[in-house]
Amino acid sequence: MPEIHPATHLRAPDPRTAATRRRIIDTSLRLFAEHGFRGVSVRDISAAAQVNVAAVNYHFGGKQGLYRTIFETVLDDDEARFAAQLAKVARLLGHTVVDRTQLPAAVEILAGGMVRRISTYENFRWFSVLLARELAFPGELFELLYRRRAAPLLDLLARVVGAAQGLAPEAESVRLTANVLYGQVGHLVFSRPILWRQVDWEDYTPARLDLLTRTVIDLINRAIGLEPRDHPPADPGVVI
Asked: Mind listing the domains of the chain with CATH numbers?
């Protein structure tokens, strides 16, 4: 058998293949949100994405594999930003004794990052429908969401709450408080139409998004007994 040299037989990824794959993902995300998993066929997806029926099986192994890939793709798209956010909070909290003066900054990074993420990622409108389904009927994909997003975020938020209240992050009251705060911010995904109608908004301009972010951060600080930081709002272009 002739020797195969990796450098000579590997080919660069075809950008057309990557574009087709992404088009199928984005199209099926909208269709699944509008009609539910069982209400959408592979033929429906193929027609809407303008690909052959076989393309779904080729790229994803079928409808179930495509559905899981949607969740993985949404998480992957945000992974670098999310990891940077958590790393920055972890550095502020340190490894042993937490400097209380750093806690408002940690709240700003955690809460501000959540608000900006769910408010500016347009596909999250569709994904939130699928997310609601997984939260209502937890299954395999709920475990993926919990492991990659909820658990690490809540662990850090519990450390912030515990340090602010002089309690261990594992304490039940601390975990409850962290989950209530997390839930309130997360609810902005589902209540956006109510919020916009209440305050007469039609979109999230940079100024409106900054106001919403500042409001959430200040409320969380006050809820756990911290004084909000008195400084100008963060630059919307800064990754937090």
From this structure: 1-61 (1.10.10.60), 71-223 (1.10.357.10)
Cα–chain-centroid distance for residue 62? 25
Tens of pLDDT along 132-176? 889 999 988 999 999 999 999 999 999 999 999 999 999 999 999
pLDDT tens, residue by residue, 76-99: 988 999 999 999 999 999 866 778
> 148: burial class by Cβ within 10 Å (0-12, 13-18, 19+)?
middle
119-128 residues labelled b (16+ CB within 10 A) or e (exposed): beeebbebbb
Q: Is the pTM of this model over 0.85?
A: no
Distance CA(142)–CA(134), nearest Å, equals 6
